[in-house]
């Protein structure tokens, strides 16, 4: 089988890139990584040259290109069914897809006010309307899944659903948004994952600064 190539952007800031990268790395999938920084005000033309949407992430597998983080995770889960990216139980797979889609399509207030930034020193900011509701809903999702599965990840073992929420773990951490022990314990589990640590190390070494994401 040809090795897929994952095109990503800055590891310090690109939440969309973080999701499939952590999913594939955490599941032990062998893939090539190509990083194209978004260091141009109008977007990097090198991204537009390989992406039909002009954005990353993009997974290329042979002649096929797949965009959008959840679509990439689903495709790789089909390529590597034993990698654990989706739960084996049908009901749990449906639930994993539901919460992943909710992450993909919701929580705009949180994402707008609190950009992902691996290097940011931990500290609170003034939160606009809507952020508290987003935080509460995500806490409920995590708490319900962890109680149902027994942890330490949302569906017991690490899966694509955890990867979909990885940027939120960073946001909750660096903006000091949560205090419940069960939520903090899940965040520590995520941050201790070898894939997270590998991404974090690379992000901290990057030279690029994106002012609009430096809240």
Automatic annotation (TrEMBL):
Pfam families: GST_C_2 (PF13410), GST_N_2 (PF13409)
Alphabetically ordered keywords of this record: Transferase
Organism: Rhizobium leguminosarum
GO biological process: glutathione metabolic process; L-phenylalanine catabolic process
NADP found in the keyword field: no
PANTHER family linked: MALEYLACETOACETATE ISOMERASE (PTHR42673:SF4)
Record-given protein name: Glutathione S-transferase
Domain GST N-terminal stretches: 4-84
Keyword Transferase (UniProt): yes
InterPro entries: Glutathione-S-Trfase_C_sf, Glutathione_S-Trfase, Glutathione_S-Trfase_N, Thioredoxin-like_sf
Single annotated GO MF: glutathione transferase activity
TM segment ranges: none
